[in-house]
Amino acid sequence: MSGHVLDVKNLKTYFSSRDGDIPAVDGVDFYVDAGEVLGIVGESGCGKSVTSLSVMGLVPSPPGRIAGGEILFNGEDLTKAKEKRMRKIRGNDIAMIFQEPMTSLNPVFKIGDQLIEGIRLHNKGSKKEAAGRAKKMLTLVGLSRVDDLMNSYPHQLSGGMRQRVMIAIAMACDPKLLIADEPTTALDVTIQKQILNLMKRLNNEMDTAIMLITHDLGVVAEMCDRVAVMYAGKVVEEGSVRAIFKDPKHPYTQGLIDSVPDMREKKERLYSIPGNVPKPGSIKEGCPFAPRCEHAYDRCVEETPVLLPAENGQKVRCWLYHDEKRGSA
Hints:
By secondary structure, this protein is of the alpha/beta class. It has helices at 48-56, 83-89, 101-104, 111-122, 127-140, 146-150, 159-171, 189-206, 217-223, 241-246, 251-258, 298-302, 319-328, and strands at 4-17, 20-33, 37-41, 64-73, 76-77, 94-97, 177-181, 209-214, 226-231, 234-240, 308-309, 315-316.
């Protein structure tokens, strides 16, 4: 399959408030290829989840709206798609695993009913055929005693089991793109490892592209082919996982990597990036990271940087890097 499965261009998602429009996502560009795992990382408040909801057409309106840009899925611009068309795409071509499975599963319906409903919504066939497909998917995600499970309610399952059920629901219609928003946040370390291995196996076996949203760089290193680093509603660096970890260009990316514990070194205190993520739209000029950046200089607070090509196929939004390269040229 040629071309990108998903190609997001200059996406802008705003939320209305008394003080005017708030840019939660402010000109984001990235793409995902078939069978690829793209990691989107950044602190809370950087716009990661709003980006995923924009792709799914699930931004609550009002107060939110997509104010500009394109979301091309197999060449079709989803920003122009009607709700009826989006209902056909969601769950069928693009599926999503949400952060907390207990709030995503309907507490008053049995697991089997929720799986069967999703399958029959997108595929023609009898209820018996849908039930067979549901059991197959539950087995595929590593769950046992599927007959009992089909008759169970969400509250009767553990957190790890609920997350596996969510993955089974998401993968039931063989989507071309799976969006996973912090899929392991509420789980203990052992279950996290199992869920990530499961997602990677499904990615390899079914050639499903995955857009993995996380703040955990360890997960990115293990799971992803490429990574896009977001800050204040913008992508500040993008590249292969190998290139980003080996030679991060943006000071924010460097700070994220430096804050990861290293088992080979014994430190009394872990590094943390000073300050906090600014409120969306609060910085009108200059680089949003400048107030937290120890390398910032005059141009950083006066002129907003753009995302430009760097070495090793990376892209970086930083005047410091590009001014240094220009000066050494």
